[in-house]
Amino acid sequence: MNPLLEYQQRLNRRSLFGRAASGIGTAALATLLQKEGLADQKGEGRNEARDLSINNNASAEPRFGGLPNLPHFAPKAKRVIYLFQNGAPTHVDLFDWKPELQKRHTEPVPTSYIKDRRFSTMTGAADGKLLLAPVEPFSQRGQSGAWVSDLMPHTAKVADELCFVKSLHTEQVNHAPAINFNLSGAEMPGRPTLGAWLSYGLGSATEELPSFVVMTSITKDTTCGQIFYDFYWGSGFLPSRFQGVKFRGSGDPVLYVSNPDGMSREMRRGWLDDIAAINQMKLDQSGDQEIATRIAQYEMSFRMQSSVPELADLSDESQETLDLYGPGVTQPGTFAHNCLIARRLAERGCGFIQLMHAGWDQHNSLTTELYNQCRDTDQPSAALVMDLKRRGLLEDTLVIWGGEFGRTPFLQGDINNRARWGRDHHPYAYTAWMAGGGVKPGISYGKTDDLGINVAENPVHVHDFQATLLHLLGIDHERLTYRFQGRRFRLTDVHGNVVHDLLA
After folding, report:
1. Quick one: 500 exposed, middle or buried, by C-beta within 10 A (0-12, 13-18, 19+)?
2. What CATH fold (topology level) applies to the domain 79-255+301-502?
3. 436 FRET partner, CA 20 to 30 A, in 110, 179, 401, 504?
4. What is the pLDDT of residue 222?
5. Residues in contact with 300: Cβ distance below 8 Å, sequence separation at least 6, in sequence order
6. What pLDDT score does 486 carry?
7. 3-state class percentages of the chain: helix first, strand second, coil last, to nearest 5
8. What is the reported pLDDT for 401?
């Protein structure tokens, strides 16, 4: 039977009026939007048109996609590489030197420091817990005099390039909500993540690769890994073409990037053109933006069949560069390999690269697995900063290193069993660092109290950090919004202030 006739025969009254109403409503809406100046040729940016104005200082470089009126002002950074450390690195063992904590080692934590503070159920009430000194010595590094633990010797060498933020604080005490809060501005899944917001707002500098790429890694044989949930790079209520594209750690970085036997590139091109035509007919009929996503993703996949194999081929990298990133750099799935691929992505126009490395959740392995984590991440992180700088990319590439919160300055475990020492989750104060992309190099901003428990000076909330990051990319965080369920949402919710003291 003719499929069209069969479709017509099965079309019921409800469907007929529903489709007719949608068509008439769409036409009427388009007319109204044009009268109010809210429509644009591509149908994108309608959530922004009311409150965005073009700034003459904005970058004039060609971009693919994005909203027509972004950036709001001249950006300092063109791309971001976020080295996210899942599980929460311990600030008091790595970057936040506290002589008083060393002095008062094994003393009970003073009640005045933890009054009304909520900790995870693994700690429960913190009363009576013993203060724990850093497990390794600290030294001041470079001309800036930044305090860095001996656990991070390579990071110490680039201390003068880094901007340490030592007064970060958040609201979540468990990993998944805290990570999601850091990346999407909300503790519950369902909001767009940072990379998705940037893909939506700024588009991409290349058509050959995704604008938002994610890579994950974990220290081998670790006992304190974290789960990588897909919503950590999700698009939430934005069209799904803005979600992160995850590169795998083994085999081809992207599944099916190679044509099967017997399928030529010309044949693949023809198939995709026919499929796109069919999808376009359905899109014209329904207006469903997920069909537009399907069209765009098929096209991106075709381009990636050429760009991804070239990206993953490290044969053009010098031995000196490979040695810079350290052992494991040629092994897909390692943090070192991901850092080098991140640099190659940045060179090729990718706008937001999110590396997630798990294993920092040291509840009872501070004296063992902390060393492993530092070994696997210290050299590649520092190498990335150095490599970007010598290639002239650091100036407009923002590199961020940090986790979802810190770890308690007091002990979790038995003080007499050093092999099982640990620290619990600590949202009230922690440290991250940034480099390049318009931030001041060689500074330490903010301060915690003498035991590293609470912020004492220049507090930086997660929303402040997000607002500052967007500002560096030329975005006013209050004006990049998306209307959903009757409300204009933004990354920073209804909070956040730009920390201008961090800006170069």
Report:
1. exposed
2. Alkaline Phosphatase, subunit A (3.40.720)
3. 179
4. 84
5. 207, 210
6. 93
7. 40, 15, 45
8. 98
pLDDT at 120: 85
The pLDDT value given to residue 293:
77
Q: Residue 346 corresponds to which amino acid?
A: A
Please report the pLDDT score of residue 455 as a whole number.
98
Q: What is the 3-state secondary structure (H, E, C) of 37-101?
A: CCCCCCCCCCCCCCCCCCCCCCCCCCCECCCCCCCCCCCCCCEEEEEEEECCCCHHHHCCCCHHH
Amino acid 47: pLDDT: 52
How far apart (Å, rounded) are the C-alpha atoms in residues 252 and 257? 7
CB 408 within 8 A of CB 364: no
Q: Quote the pLDDT of residue 57.
A: 42
pLDDT of 160 reads: 98
CB 188 within 8 A of CB 284: no
Specify the DSSP element, H or E, that contains 484. Answer: strand 482-484
For the chain, the domains span 3-36, 79-255+301-502
Cα–Cα dist 3/8, whole Å: 9
Which residues in the chain show pLDDT less than 50?
1-7, 22, 24-46, 48-59
DSSP string computed for 258-301? SPPTT--HHHHHHHHHHHHHHHHHHHHHH--HHHHHHHHHHHHH
Per-residue pLDDT at 34: 43
343, 357, 380 from 339: Cα distances, Å: 6, 11, 6
Per the listing, tokens 């990071």 go with 155
